[in-house]
Amino acid sequence: MTGTLVLAGTPIGDVQDAPPRLAVELAGADVVAAEDTRRLRRLTQALGVAPAGRVVSYFEGNESARTPELVEELVGGARVLLVTDAGMPSVSDPGYRLVAAAVERGVRVTAVPGPSAVLTALALSGLPVDRFCFEGFLPRKAGERLTRLREVAGERRTLVYFEAPHRLDDTLAAMAEVFGADRRAAVCRELTKTYEEVRRGGLGELAAWAGEGVRGEITVVVEGAPDTGPEEIGAEELVRRVRVREEAGERRKEAIAAVAAQAGVPKREVFDAVVAAKNAGS
Predict the structure, then answer these.
(1) Are 274 and 239 in contact (CB under 8 A)?
(2) What 8-state DSSP symbol labels residue 167?
(3) Which of 13, 26, 53, 169 has the largest count of CB atoms under 10 Å?
(4) CA-based nearest residue to 156, from 90, 211, 222
(5) What is the pLDDT of residues 23-62, one digit of tens each?
């Protein structure tokens, strides 16, 4: 029989938030794959548990090379526990490659649910949480960052981003440019830690605040676009949105379908707008 891959959530700040089952899995796993073995050591000491199995590193730099090795362990019957530095594996952290490879080989994959910066920030933001989408980290380059933001300029769901503290002011300024300075947002800093802070306000206001310097781990929650209705989206705007998606690597057919769904208009209307713009040479 094949083994089991266990994805385990770890505390995003306060170690007391660790789920009780995490200690059980750490003690019983045949292999513990950790994003940072030194941080794992501090976690196990705080939990009062000693892993009985082999501990290996599994981070962005060795993820591709180590995945086949771990899959062979799983196929051979091992119980492999995957932990990252904070939160759930695979959520802007290592894990996706291993899960995909394990599923392909017929290995059982399960999870130890744990803390999540995404859900915690959403709950604290004061913004609508009935529908949301997680966008992860934005590109570091200014042009690529603006392109990515423009792709979701009309998104009506609440948006959640991770960001590094030294890039926060530039990111908030770019969001204010694309989404509007008055679009409501919340910057959640050092969640569940000693200096936890949630700063709420318009994107322009928050960008000015972040310019003074911010430290810690950051999650940004942004209010979705207002529902203006499809009648307010003209042909020129539909064509622009298709072009943005094409520049990001989408095929035209998929870009047209996505823009139509987002704008709430028939695909034919978007297609006709794109063809007319092409014929007009614009």
Answers:
(1) yes
(2) G
(3) 26
(4) 222
(5) 999 999 999 999 999 999 999 999 999 999 999 999 999 9
